[in-house]
Amino acid sequence: MTMPTRTPMHTRAPMPRTRVARTYPIKTTDSADTTADRPRKDPTTEVAMAATLKDATAIVGIGQTPFAKQLPESERTLACRAIVAALDDAGIPPSQVDAFASYTMEETDEVEVAKAVGAGDVTFFSKVGYGGGGSCATVAHLAAAIATGQASVGVAWRSRKRGSGPRPWSNTTVQLPTPGQWTRPYGLLRPADEIGMLARRYMHEYGATRDHLFNVALACRNRANQNPAAMMYERPLTRDMYMTSRWISDPLCLFDNCLETDGALACVLVSAERARDCRTKPVYVHSAAQGLPAQHHGMVNYWNDDPLTGPAWTAARHLWKSADFGPQDVHVAQIYDAFTPLIPLSLEGYGFCGRGEGAAFTEGGALESGGRLPINTGGGGLSEAYVHGFNLITEGVKQLRGTSTAQVPDAATCLVTAGEGVPTSALLLRS
Amino acid sequence: MSPIMKATTDNGLLLPVVDEDGAPFWEYAARGELRVQTCADCDEPRFPPRPCCPHCQSFDSAWVQATGRGRIWSYVFPHPPLLPAYAEQAPYNAIIVELADFPRIRLVGNLVASPDAALNSVDPARLRVGAPVKVVFTELAEGVTVPRWMLERP
To answer: SS3 of A430, please?
Structure first.
């Protein structure tokens, strides 16, 4: 298999910074066009149109609650705790918050959050669909709003009580956002069943084995064992435990599935200029993308030409097109891991290896600390907490601040991805 | 309440929650016919059913009968936790069938030993990606018939 060459860790130089010009050049194509009939464009509008997201904003605050199977507080209270903690981390008073972004399946809306934490007048709010596919898009939407002057201080959050609360597939009358009439009567009831179908096909086409899926589960568990905040902090995983565990949806066993977690997380985004005045080291949003591929069908993506190339491939094309570096320059990645097979699929989609090579990529400790691509360094959804992927964003920030419990030395670039298998999103972060 | 409006069978299996685009599929199934929505202008089949052809944007469609033969594209064996009616039969199979005469049209279903047999009526060792199957129909509730699949070589 062909692999992009990777800079050895000890020779890594900081990524070249391109943040020199924060005022973006005004396009001059219209400047000689004074005789045109159309009205002259307002120069400020032209600046906005020419604006790029690249390094224009930074995450300057992160916050989280404890993670547990069951927390006593309500989802709303947990949301507020995470947001207040993130603002405190940034050193920004809640009254200055004027933008919110969240994703669907969030019980607490921006009205509740804004009034509870004491936000000021809010001029931008956005809610991204498709569950875990929306995680990185919350940050992307805030970045776009701030870069274009619609707001100045943005908060994105996720609060869930999936550990102790109801599950969408346990109620016969609740329809998941999938074409349920074609799947649910046949007992294809849960996300694990839906992804299990793609996993079986992937294993069949490319010779992937349960050992490859175990490699994913183990890497996440090993990082969780280093992270005192992780639900699986003191619970190591062995191959024997994995291979003899109960099935959830054969070919997926217990350890192929993410945790059921109560908890909340938040982050604070501001412009790059303002970030310099915050109390934390800025983590810049270098590139951001959403991905809804042509003829995509959600988690039951069985009905297009090539079901094994999912939304990650679409998001990746846009993500890399807008970036100054490529997959070979990513020092650490936080890849959405509701289920282990999403990792090999995402490794292929985001260009770390070729089609069908994702399983083989996991061999030889590649995903572990010191490996070719350390992933999910807080433990991820499989072993830290499953909060629809928001902990992957905050862990990416910790890596680039240098404060992760499984710190990749000199990490300066991080890929964060949202749920693969549903309309998705991704971020490239840099220090 | 008509059966089609019920959420489950008497013993708790989920019934299809039919939408306007999907309704013809279920009406044909009730007659024992497996039909695929196909563009009336460019002849491109599409699934799941939808109002407009994604290839030529025509709003006219026809429902073309399939031979009912196909191959298993993938399969899972769900284990609990599951809804009670499914947990009782677990582990059972859920399969995806790629239709022989409509490549890329893939239907989720169950592989059964006979049309009305339980979802766990086929030995799991018999399931293989690529195994040839043929359609059968079972009436889940009054007026609600779903396609199921049997091995071509049982």
So the answer is: strand
